[in-house]
Amino acid sequence: MGKLNTRAVVAGSSGFIGQRIVRELRDRGYEVSRIGRNGPDARWGDAAGILALVDGADLVLNLAGKSVNARYTDSERDEILRSRTATTQELRRAVETSARPPRLWLNASTATIYRFSLDRPMTESSGELGTGFSADIARLWEEEFFAGELPGTRRVALRMAIVLGDGPATNLLVRLARLGIGGPQIDGWWFPHRRYRGIGAHPSGDGRPPQHRSKGRQKFSWIHIDDVVGAINFIDENDSLDGAVNLVAPTASDNRTLMAVLRRRVGAKIGLPAFRWMLEPAMWVLRTEPELVLKSRWVQPEKLLQAGYSFTWTELEPAIADLVT
Fold first, then answer.
1. Distance of CA 206 to the CA centre of its chain
2. What predicted TM-score, i.e. pTM, was given to this entire model?
3. Considering only CA atoms, which of 10, 2, 5, 7 is closest in space to residue 28?
C-alpha cells in the first residue's frame, strides 16, 4: 500500500542498504530527505537542520555508523562506537523537541548483540546478550536509542544479520571463493591481544579474545537485501511491532555450507580452508578482523514470524544464486 504526501527521513543512506531503501521508500510514495556527513538535506552536528527534517516526518530511519569491516585499533574502536551513539543521540533530541514527532523511528542495530552460539538459536525473547567489543557496541547503541520517553513515536531497533547483496561482506566472500581460498574459516589458537575487549563506561568480558573449536561449523545467520526492505515495509505498516526486532532469515546456515554454496556458484573446484593462524596475518593486511567470519551467529526472527511476515528468501543457496552471477 503506497503512502501519499508523507515524508521519510533516512540517515546514513550512502551504503548499499541505504541506497536500496531510499529507492523503495520513494516507490511507495514517500518524499525522502537524507541526513549524512555531507547531507544532502542536513548534516550531522546541525541540530536545527536535523530538527527541521524530523519535525513533521512520518518515518525516521537511521542506518548511520562506521563500518565494522575495519581493524579494531583504539581509534577505530572509538569511532565505531561514536558514529552510532552520537548520531542516534542527535536524532533522539530532534524527536524529543519536535512539535509533530514522527510516527515511527527505525534504528539500525546488529544481531551480533547476541552471544556466540552453537547450542541454540537466539530470539528476541530468549536470546542471551554477548560480551566484549561487538556486543558492547550493540548494547550501548540500543541503550541510546531507547533512552527517554517518546510517547508519540514507536521505536524499533533493527537487529540485522549479515545482509546478502551488493555489499562488502558478500563481495569479499565471493572473491575468496573465486580465488580458490573459499574453504571453511576455522578458529583456533593465536597470540593474545585486547582488540576485542569491551568498550564504554562498563565494558563487558575479561578482555581476552574468544577462541572456539567450532571446526568451521560456526553458524551463519543472514538476510537477503529484499527481505531487509520487505521487513522494514512490514514493520512500517504493523503497529504491533516495537522494541528490538531480529532481521534475519528463518533458516541459519553454517560457515562450511556457506563457502561450499559460494564455490558451487562461482564454479571453483577447490576451496582451501583458512585456520586462524592463517586468517590473522591475512586480515591484518586487509585491515579487518577474523571475528567477522569466526563468530557463530545463530539468530531467529521470532517477532517477524509471529506477526505474520512472509520471507521471500528462506534458503541460503537460492538467495546466493539470486545475487551472484
1. 25
2. 0.95
3. 2
